[in-house]
Design brief:
The protein is an alpha/beta fold. The protein contains seven helices and nine strands, in the order H-E-E-E-H-H-E-H-E-H-E-H-E-E-E-H. This is Thioredoxin domain-containing protein.
């Protein structure tokens, strides 16, 4: 009986992810509304400031191995990104605000200007068309690993890892070299 229930739950997650899935955002498109995001508190919405040039780093999960290897590159190179005209770097994950705050403190105990943003409902990630079913490894729908360079609220460029556990096109050094 338990295995039937588990199978039904997994099927429901897959269906929910398929329903939420949209076509992947493309260069030239407007970045969707960011009103459901959070940074400081669960009851306080965060709207991304996307005026100028900004980088949105989408990751599958806080505290996961590849994500925790990827984000320190952005923290260390923050000043280099600023020198190339980047106004803000946002790290977005389908996690709750408490997890994102703890992950930021873990990766940058002395602080960082990189902003860690919780997309706890996955609404922003879904609107980007970058949600995938990560149920087998992370328990539910999650964000693909991606980089969006935004210019004045429009996608200038986007790179998505074909395999979420890879760091090829989304590595900080690669992105910095392309600016």
């Amino acid at each position: 009986m338990a295995s039937v229930m588990a199978s039904a739950a997994q099927a429901a997650h897959s269906v929910a992810t398929a329903i939420l899935a949209k076509a992947q955002i493309q260069p030239g498109a407007d970045i969707p509304s960011t009103s459901d995001l959070k940074e400081n508190a669960a009851d306080e919405s965060k709207k991304l400031d996307l005026s100028g040039r900004n980088i949105i780093v989408g990751v599958p999960g806080a505290f996961t191995g590849t994500c925790s290897a990827q984000i320190p590159g952005y923290i260390k190179a923050y000043d280099d990104f600023k020198a190339k005209g980047v106004k803000n770097i946002y790290v977005v994950s389908v996690n709750d605000v408490f997890v994102m705050k703890a992950w930021k403190e873990n990766l940058a105990p002395s602080g960082t200007n990189v902003q860690f943003i919780a997309d706890d409902k996955g609404a922003f990630t879904s609107a980007l068309g970058l949600l995938f079913d990560a149920t087998p490894r992370l328990g539910g729908p999650r964000s693909k690993r991606y980089i969006i360079i935004a210019e004045d609220e429009k996608v200038s460029s986007i790179a998505v890892e074909e395999v979420p556990s890879n760091l090829t096109v989304t590595d900080a050094k690669v992105v910095l070299a392309q600016l």
